[in-house]
């Protein structure tokens, strides 16, 4: 039994929900999200709450129960507050800037790295900080992960792109040979 799936999802006053054939549409102050769900899970609207329940009680269906409930909660949270991921660019000469719909990064390569900002994502970039904002939690996380993958932090000097608050485990460098 899913603990998250059993709890009904409360619908805030400033959010409109539409459910049709297991397609959920959520409208809020920041925008609109639409998502199609598998018909193995029943999604119903009942007096100010969304109730999610499995059609059959099999292993794979029970696994989807809590997942779908969390996805709907994230959709509601996204259209109300949105989601933000912050990244820090560390290294001498490393910098970031937003130009139009592109993020331009100088990461020590022979050329600047350009990344197209996808639809539904707002991005702010200062000298060494990047802020990714959007209403879709999955998309925000994926874009932030793609940016981080361009230059992962290395363990010796800590240079690279890391999430804000991420702790990079540092390694000791080579020990210099001393004569005995």
Report on the structure:
By secondary structure, the protein is α+β, with helices and mostly antiparallel strands. It has two domains: 3-80, Outer Surface Protein A, domain 3, CATH 3.90.930; 83-163, Alpha-Beta Complex (Outer Surface Protein A, domain 3), CATH 3.90.930. Helix content is 22%, strand content 38%. It has helices spanning 3-6, 59-80, 137-150, and strands at 9-10, 16-20, 23-28, 31-36, 41-46, 49-54, 83-90, 95-99, 102-106, 113-116, 121-125, 129-134, 160-163. The chain has a four-stranded antiparallel sheet, covered by helices on one side. It has a three-stranded antiparallel sheet with strand order 1-6-5. β2 (16-20) and β3 form a beta hairpin. The longest helix is centred in the middle third of the chain and has 22 residues, at 59-80. It is elongated and about 70 Å long. The mean pLDDT is 91.
What keyword list fits this structure?
three-stranded antiparallel beta sheet, four-stranded antiparallel beta sheet, Outer Surface Protein A, domain 3, 2 domains, 180 residues, single chain, alpha+beta, 13 strands, elongated
